[in-house]
Amino acid sequence: MTEDVFGARGIRERVLAGWAAAPVRFREDANAEEELALGGYVDRLVIELAQNAADAATRAGTPGRVLYEFRENTLVVANTGAPLDAEGVESLATLRASAKRVDRAGSSVGRFGVGFSAVLSVTDEPVVLSRTGGVRFSKADTAAAIADLGNASLDIELRRRDGQVPVLRLPFATEGEPPAGYDTAVILPLRDEAAADLVRRLLTEADDALLLALPGLGRIEIETDDTHRILENAADRWHIHRAAGTFTTAEREHLLADRPTEERTRPTWSVVWALPRSPLTELPRVVHAPTPTDEPFSLPALLLATFPLDSTRRHVAKGPLTDRLVQEAATSYAELLRQRADHRDDVMPLVPTGLPAGALDRMLRDEILRVLPGIPILPAVDGTVLRPSEAVVVDGADEAFNEVLAPLVPGLIHARREDRLALDALQVRRIELAEVVDQLGGEEPPGWWRTLYAALSTMVTDPLIRESLGTLPVPLADGRLVRGARGLLLPGPEIPVDTLAAFGAYGVRVVHPDAVDPVLERLGAIPATPRSLLEDGAVRAAVEHSAEADDPDAIAHAVLSLVAADPTQAEGLWWLSDLVLRDADGELVPANALVVAGSDAQAVLDADEVAPIAGDLLDRYGLPALEAVGVLASLGVVAASDVALDRLPEALQDLDGIEDWAYDVAPDGSRYGATVGELEAIRDLDWITDDSWPKVLQLLGSDPELRRALVTQVRVVGPDDRPLGVPSYAAWWIREHVLLDDGEPLAGRADPAAEPVLATFLDEAPAWTAGLDPEVRTAVGLVRDVGDLDADGLGLVLDRLADPERDVDEPSILRLWNRLGTLALFPGAAPVHVRVLDAGGGTRVTDADGAVVVDGPMWVQREDLGGFVIGSGAAADGLSDLFDVPLAQEVAEGKIDGEGTAADVPAIVRELVPEVPATWWEHEELAVDGVEVSWWVDADGAPHAATFDGLAKALAWAAGRWDRRHVIRAVLNEPDRSVELLVDAVYD
After folding, report:
1. What's the pLDDT at 108?
2. Which residues of 371-399 are buried (b: 16+ CB within 10 A; e: fewer)?
3. Are 674 and 685 in contact (CB under 8 A)?
4. Is the pTM of this model over 0.90?
């Protein structure tokens, strides 16, 4: 017989007696056990048994060890520590009562006496074996004991519950020993495969949280058929901070008033925070109290605290105790961050940001953020650790810049972009970069400023930061400290110091050489190349006022020294021509009124307008430098880009007549909205002497730059974005102003290579023009063909064409009409008289009212309509508009009198000219509008004819193949030549 060392029989008898006396107690016990087993403890088996093991180790005062061995569908959980005793058995068999009491250290975590009910989630026959004895619990034996009572009410209740009984209320004595090396073992034969799956999952999920929650355990070993794991030395993998305390009597009355009796007897609290040492460690995203709850948790740490739980044992209960523990947890967390900050760990990722995961998480985060601003956790740039409330962040500053600012900004800390939310949560004061920049300035040497600029090297890539640095102080070479780098000049070795000194009085701002850094260029400073210095507004002011300068020769020397280094750098700086230089007589003259002695410019320009430059200047600086500032050896060109014709740039305003040119070339005579992309103009045309034009035009044709500025049309774009090619300024000026010895313009005269018929109606150009470049002749207004005529030239040609004293033959007039009809310009007024073909041969002049334009060959037969102006297609329409003369079909109906006889077109004709119609109409006599003709094509395209020659023309015109009329006539007149003509047609 098994010895009952724990009084199990007595416990059973008392419980059974109570059930028999009051069956409702049986129901209450059964309901309570079922609620625990299937509710709050359904997946807490591993945790609860580890908690029991930790309690046993604590009571024994030794580090605890626990073994989970799962084999052959049985789970054995063995542990070291205090063995099972009678009080422990009583606790196991009494729901909501616990044998665990807090020791003097307050280290016990078992607080409900009900955790053992977790075994019922996997077994109906749990066994506990210890060195002192053993007990077992059994669903079947409990049901049998109830049946033996013979209590009708209990039997009814048992049937109603389908045999479900409170297993853990009736202990039975048993025999057995725990595994060697252990003091107690819980043996759980698993109920079914579902229970086995649950055990496997729970054992797999067991991790360091067990060791952290249960400090009484030093080692946890897990063995299954295919795994063997050992959990120990958690401190090697976690940074751990523990806090604990005992409530005062007054605190207990307030904080524990709403808690169960068992909890009110334990006035202690504890908090454990653990941070993983490895970033790869996965954290359970729930609060532990101190074992896992279902309360979601968002912080990147493990929290284990003695939070009170509700009846489900899954959630933290609301109330003053929870509020107090939230405060203690926040204080402890802040201390953990302080410790890590002292070890120079980055604590920014540990600061709560974003949205909370739940109500308790929100309470913890809010309290932590209330505490943290007063805790030194932020490393300052100077190496100290600051409270967030003392810290300052300069927005946009990087580490290098912060190092320079640290002595100037107390409390300055480094702030990465990814830390912004955390720093805002900590209420760290922010200073705008622009505000810091505005506060900079003092007696720092130039070298200090260069160090500061170098620290900005990575920051200035950001456009917004560059804007914030707009007032950054910069030391100048003259000792001043100015704000803003934009426009300052960065000195380089290629510019002599005396050159810079010459412009100092005019406000040229040069950075001190010891402060120069590439960052200044990113902020708008300009490397002081000759070009950048010449473009400086102060240099321009010096040039424009050089005539009034105390030492104009010094200004001239400084400018010419810069230009001589690279004359191309002066390109486009037209105002350099205002620089006063010495002429050959020692007088000060603007560069644009100086010429090189013996040059083409001196030969062709008016001596009253220009003077020769001093020879020593030419020797010292060279011709390229002098030409670059406007001194002329030949004629000069002024260029401008993106020119608005209604707002001409300064560079062009000194050109003679430039406003008139803009009006003349603007679309529809309006300059507004009209632009020119690139404009090149030859200057000083008004200074050229009258007798120099033959030489000048030779010069313009031989120099590539001058030639381009003369002959290249200017592209004007109107407000409607349509481009228009117009004469260059130089071409326009020469056409408007150059007169020959007879007082008449050069422009409009016949080009030496003009078409003979056109030349007869124009004045002859001087013989010397024959030696000019043909494009130059065209540009200055000489007329080579009809397309070169302007409106005035066209009016002159029409007037002379209508001169009856002139003799014009038919071939000449036909060629001229063909060209005139294609023109898109018109004279100021239509001519009163028009030259027409004479019916008797040759040409004659008639009133415009007596002329018609004939645009088709059949109308040539209608001599009754008046004198003929011959044209075809668009040319005929152009001639009608040019002479203001109607087309023939506009003055005659062209109606055929009679119907004629239909006849088939010979097959050979259709084979030679497939386009001819199949039928034609034969007439003995053919009349149109009462006038006899030999052929006609009516409005429907039908050919009519009274002769073979007329038929050939009618068929060709009707077919749209007027060029084949002679072939058609040949085959009609000589049918026997049809084979010959067919052979010839193969090669057409």
Report:
1. 43
2. bbbebbbbbbbeeebbbbbbbbbbbbbbe
3. no
4. no
